[in-house]
From TrEMBL:
One of its GO terms (molecular function) is 8-oxo-7,8-dihydroguanosine triphosphate pyrophosphatase activity. Pfam families: NUDIX. This is 8-oxo-dGTP diphosphatase. Keywords: DNA damage, DNA repair, DNA replication, Hydrolase, Magnesium, Metal-binding, Mutator protein. The keyword NADP does not apply. It comes from Streptomyces corynorhini. Residues 2-127 form the Nudix hydrolase domain. Belongs to the Nudix hydrolase family.
Amino acid sequence: MTDRVVVAGAVYDRGRLLAARRSAPPELAGRWELPGGKLEPGERPEQALVRELREELGVEARPVERIPGEWPLMPGLVLQVWTVRLLSGEPRPLEDHDELRWLGPEEIHTVDWLDQDRPAVAEAARRLPAPGR
Ligand SMILES: Nc1nc2c([nH]c(=O)n2[C@H]2C[C@H](O)[C@@H](COP(=O)(O)OP(=O)(O)OP(=O)(O)O)O2)c(=O)[nH]1
């Protein structure tokens, strides 16, 4: 059986990375992740990511490039991450999250990331654009 893909966004703004705190389910609540969600049948990852970021954060966004790699989550689920450019809107925790935080390069480790997200977050942090971009 092939694993189901969860797509998540490395959303950057002024040299900071967006982190989102999950509000559910109970075993994940309070832990931080990259916003995104599961691919629906027939959906391409980029489409799924645009849809999820619209639903969860209320923003319009454009996937820019995939961060190479694929990270196992729970059995049957793997995480893929795209860098994302925000086109419009200010991210708000509308669904699945109860807090958002923009983290600069020195702040990446100040939130309690989901254990399984740490390698992906490290890759996302390595690609943080300079503050002017
Ligand atoms: N979005 C996201 N989910 C993650 C990350 N790390 C991680 O283990 N997960 C898990 C949590 C969930 O079990 C699953 C993603 O499902 P979800 O609940 O966010 O997605 P969804 O909106 O498509 O959910 P659903 O209600 O259709 O099941 O992957 C991450 O960085 N981002």
